[in-house]
Amino acid sequence: AQQPGTPLSDQEYHQFFKFLRITIQASTACHLRELYGCKNSLVQRLDEYENHGVIPPGPICSELPGDPFFNNFCTFSLYRCIMKKYFLKV
């Protein structure tokens, strides 16, 4: 373990920026979703990519306490974007 206040090692920086890049990409996808909506062809392609080629029909169940399901994948994705839980799975 590193001492508090010391810089990250090369390996730690690699992991840090890898996570940051992924988070920025997820945030960008959310921004597109918020701007153009779920009917936009680019947003639909991202949704298909995330789900191995098929956007799941609703309702969408999740492991969230209190919000067990969403009417459709779009609603679920918007929730993830708003809550910044980009990698929450169904």
Automatic annotation (TrEMBL):
It comes from Brachypodius melanocephalos. This is Acrosin-binding protein. GO terms for cellular component: acrosomal vesicle; nucleus. It is found in: Cytoplasmic vesicle, Secretory vesicle, Acrosome. Keywords: Cytoplasmic vesicle, Phosphoprotein, Signal. InterPro entries: Proacrosin-bd (IPR009865). Acrosomal protein that maintains proacrosin (pro-ACR) as an enzymatically inactive zymogen in the acrosome. Involved also in the acrosome formation.
